[in-house]
Amino acid sequence: MLLTLSTTGRPSEGLAATELGYLLHKHPDRVQTFDISAGKAHVFYPEATAQRCTAALLLDLDPIALVRRKSGPAGEGFALQQYVNDRPYVASSFLSHALAQVYSSALNGRCHDRPHLVDTPLPLEARLSVVRARGGADALKRLFKPLGYALDITPHPLDPQFPAWGESPYFSVTLRHELPVQTLLSHLYVLMPVLDREKHYWVSAQEVDKLLTKGEGWLATHPERDYITRQYLMKLGGLTRLALSRLLENEAVEEALDGDLLPEAEDVTEPVAPTEPRVSLHQQRLLAAVEQLRRAGVRRVLDLGCGEGKLLQLLLRDGQFEQIVGMDVSYRSLQRAADRLHYDELSPRQRERLQLMQGSLTYRDARLEGFDGAAIVEVIEHLDPARLHAFARVVFEFARPGTVVLTTPNADYNVRYESLTAGTFRHTDHRFEWSRAEFQTWADGIAERFDYTVSLFPVGETDPDVGAPSQMAVFRLA
Hints:
Layout lengths: L1 E7 L11 H5 L7 E5 L2 E10 L3 E10 L1 H6 L24 H10 L1 H4 L14 E11 L3 H9 L5 E8 L9 E13 L1 H16 L9 H9 L10 H8 L4 H12 L4 H4 L24 H15 L4 E5 L5 H7 L6 E6 L2 H10 L7 H6 E5 L14 E5 L10 H12 L3 E7 L26 H15 L1 E8 L10 E8 L1
Parallel strand pairs: 8-9, 8-11, 9-10, 11-12
Antiparallel strand pairs: 1-4, 1-5, 2-3, 3-4, 5-7, 6-7, 12-14, 13-14
Helix pairs in contact: 3-6, 6-8, 7-9
């Protein structure tokens, strides 16, 4: 898959075309290669003169790596679809990912050497070698023309030897416009997955933030705004409503969801994430923790034992939390958290709010001091009982946040799990699981010892005999 971006110089203004290299943070004299999802991205310059400069982004996707990816395309059109597909060739979410990784500075509006060029409109020409547009050439026009682009669209037949078979959904497209490089890249970042109608990764609530960040300044006024929002979020109703409610503010969201605004070339069934799943127990724990932190007015928060970053996702989406730190003893989990949070793609403002660090909850750490809130969700049961004393001192004596929200399984509820035999734990890594009485005793002791007050709450559906599956303690400095 090839994307070329070209510009021409303005000698009368002292502006050389090669200034493009500064904006993209890629030197015209070098070929650079980057690892991306399921392959590599290469950046090189076929031409670089003062009069005209072209930067080429070539995606070299490995078809075998695509098959091996757990989150890769998994269509069920026919038995060999995993091996015979268009993923290595068409502009898709892989291109968006490459733009965010390879051209991250340009996409986020940063240019250290030529900062005045970031907002400078340049005569730009972007050529996409192959685009898949299910709505045909009309879909391309209705998405790009309202943004001011002049388009050259070349359709590709299904088979030149059999013209009666008709046209394919594939096109070569050239876009021309005078605008800042950042703006053009943001258009491509959002609209390529919209046209392609597939994504190579799980669509989560994080996608709403990405859409609104990259769509800032143009998506809200685009005539196909609702269609773009719905298709970018893979027609997931809950996420679409969330995105539109934030985008439209006081406008009626339901009216915007009445139907597709672009015609479809055919009725195509495509793999998407499950819609409106039942809220899992773990998600209930995370939501309950966020709610308690919000009620306490917390602004600087620790996620201790953050794991793969699921709670961090929720905290990032809430503007109340101005500084968010995730800590875990496992470096591998922190890497997964960074991937889940698309850390490299975050806007500068969001990246300033978030920090990931490695550390242990049983050793004093000065980095944990000075926060007004901490969440410790399903962590303590993974500690050896002998280490709980050290854990308590690290959190409640030395770090000493104003509010600590802590959850752990309720052992009383284990009798409701048919797969658990008496005396066994829910997870092989659990070192203990407390009953409600045991948790109450421990929490009261912590509060008394370290001058906190404590309140206990059930998490999950409560059974009249054995309580809820999880239990939460909220500690507040007295």
